[in-house]
Write a structure and sequence with these properties.
The structure holds two protein chains of two kinds.
Chain A lengths: L4 E3 L2 E4 L5 E6 L6 E7 L6 E7 L2 E5 L7 E4 L6 E5 L8 E8 L8 E2 L3 E5 L1
Parallel strand pairs in A: 2-11
Antiparallel strand pairs in A: 1-3, 3-8, 4-5, 4-9, 5-6, 7-8, 9-10, 9-11
Chain B lengths: L3 E2 L4 E5 L4 E7 L4 E9 L6 E7 L4 E4 L2 E6 L4 E6 L8 E9 L6 E2 L3 E6 L1
Parallel strand pairs in B: 2-11
Antiparallel strand pairs in B: 1-3, 3-8, 4-5, 4-9, 6-7, 7-8, 9-10, 9-11
Classes of the chains: A mainly beta, B mainly beta.
Chain lengths: 114, 112
């Protein structure tokens, strides 16, 4: 399977705990994106990497959120001191230079904060 | 501030007929528009796109129309098939900005 993969698919945690999600993009894609989606809404942009450089962050990405893409390949999204409002689907996407802005998505990580 | 709006939460169409999904936007700086399809428990899948320099793009059964003056786009599916039942999202992006701004989606149900 050469698509975008995300791990874990589901995460249940208690309020106040830290969680980390991983995204493996399509191998030749240099751009990687994180989005958050809540029920009945479209995805909301969180952050974007070009290779290993984090080029853009949404104001939605509070200080408790951090994302990395250390070698320009896989990426991690960490949420510290989780809150119930963090419960959502976290989607990762990747794209390739010159491919306009067509982004390819993983199946997402569903986070439930109890 | 919803810059991309899909005002129909759901749409039911008979198999074989045309499905028309609509999307409105407010930001005149958007120059590229995409439609994605999403099945339950899967991520969104790219369907078709259109640049603001065009007013129509066609790919098989799928056609997207763009009316820049009205800030409106639509996706036509002809003929509709049961496998088209999914949630359809409209998304837009601005020049030199890679984030996609999404509508809330329209759930399309194709009736046999």
């Amino acid at each position: 399977d050469t698509g975008v993969s995300q791990d874990p698919r589901h995460k249940i945690t208690k309020r106040g705990q830290n969680v980390t999600f991983r995204c493996d993009p399509i191998s030749e894609h240099n751009r990687l994106y994180w989005y958050r989606q809540t029920l009945g809404q479209g995805p909301e942009f969180l952050t974007y990497f070009q290779n290993e450089a984090q080029l853009e962050k949404s104001r939605l990405l509070s200080d408790r959120f951090s994302a990395e893409r250390p070698k320009g390949s896989f990426s991690t999204l960490e949420i510290q001191r989780t809150e119930q409002g963090d419960s959502a689907m976290y989607l990762c996407a990747s794209s390739l230079d010159g491919d306009q802005n067509i982004q390819y998505f993983g199946a997402g990580t569903r986070l439930s904060v109890l | 501030d919803q810059q991309v709006k899909q005002n129909s939460p759901s749409l039911s169409v008979q198999e074989g007929r045309i499905s028309i999904l609509n999307c409105d936007y407010t930001n005149s700086m958007f120059d590229y528009f995409l439609w994605y399809k999403k099945y339950p428990a899967e991520g969104p899948t790219f369907l078709i796109s259109i640049s603001s320099i065009k007013d129509k793009n066609e790919d098989g059964r799928f056609t997207v129309f763009l009316n820049k003056s009205a800030k409106h786009l639509s996706l036509h599916i002809v003929p509709s098939q049961p496998g088209d039942s999914a949630v359809y999202f409209c998304a837009a992006s601005r020049i030199n900005n890679y984030q996609l701004i999404w509508g809330a989606g329209t759930k399309l149900i194709i009736k046999p």
